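Deliverable D5.2: sample structural annotation.
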Amino acid sequence: MEATIDRLSDLPDSVLTHILSFLPTKFSVRTSILGQRWRHLWTYVPNLDFDCSDQTIIDEVFSTHKFQSINTFRLSSNLPKRTDPWIISTWINIAIDRNIRKLDLCFFDYTICLPNRLFTCKTLVDLRLDSCGRIPNPGIAVCLPRLKKLHLIYVHYKNGEPLANLVSRCPVLEELVIYLDMINYRYYRISSPTIKRLTMEIHPRGAYYDPDSDKEQEEKNHKLEIDTPALVYLHLVDYAARLIKTGPLTSLTEADIYLCNYVGADHYSLYARSVAGFIDGLHNVKCLNLDLSYSKEIIDSISSVWSTRRFHNLTNLELTSPYLLLNMFIQNADNLRVLIFSKPFEVIDSWMEPPQQVPECLLRNLRIVKLDQIEGQDNEFEYIRYILRNARVLERMEITYHCSFDSEENIRTLKEILHSYRGSAACEAAFVKGLNNRRL
């Protein structure tokens, strides 16, 4: 039998430590039993990755670790209640002293104290805080000159000022991710000339809007402003804001937007104008995923004030809304190539007849259409016929129908549509049952 060749041992230490840097620290430490050469090799790995609740292990690793620069320090842990919260500050300070570049902390403990010097670290490039610590209030020194990525997942701060102050003190920031709940949610302003990717989610995990608040407080509550002229990608999930305002988004090419906010009747008009203005501000995008899960009244209000600015660059649209807004989009997106459309089940549709003048996108550009979860209403069948009849370059249409619509009459209607006249001879049509993907 041929002897096994140990090719791994032939590699230089620099390559081996690089390989070990991809492992959680507890696994890289275990390699010390492989032989004399491996005994201390892990201590020169530039990444420290802990997922444990044993304070002693982390202390021992820090005391043994020899590499003078730490590239990544990641700690995800449910520390015991008896843990001294200041020990976290000690570990972070050690990482700062060793020129930390990426710090990723997840504790699910808001009492954790983050040292103030973390927010003046000159080497930090990537900072991720999840359910721990607080953002310093204005007045405390903040300066992160090299920070390019900042993720704040349910991090506490009293109001929007600490967040705005932190972002303004990151002069080269390119990616910002923020998750908020509605507890003490008032007014947040994201302003940066350098941010290229923004992800912001506001979820109803806490208190809801108080309709009895006085007018001055009401105007401050639930307001979101975004002023990021270099933004290329925007992801926004919003259950809270009563007013959304953006500066020019001339660089924006892709947006993923979910707005679900059931305001009271007294606020329909103001909120509708806010949302309509926000949608208009997205007019430069190439790819848009827009989910407007509103009540009928809100949709009607939005459509009545929307200026229907033309979306000249839009090629891919995924839209969740009544057909009313679908009409408005296809008439103003001449270069649309891919359309995915679904209607919220809870919305009583505001029906509008298909455009009498066939939109330019149907005549020249629309290649793929998917209509999701149709319910068997006559107007839905009419819209399917309209697209098939007028889309001259359509390559594929897929209609997904809900299981509750699976009647002989509806199936017969779908089959009739399947064999009806099509404006594009190359078009393939498929009808798919939503739950079990049964095709006709």
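Annotation notes: The chain is about 25% helix and 25% strand. The two ends are 60 Å apart (CA to CA).
The annotation will be released with the project's public dataset once the embargo ends.
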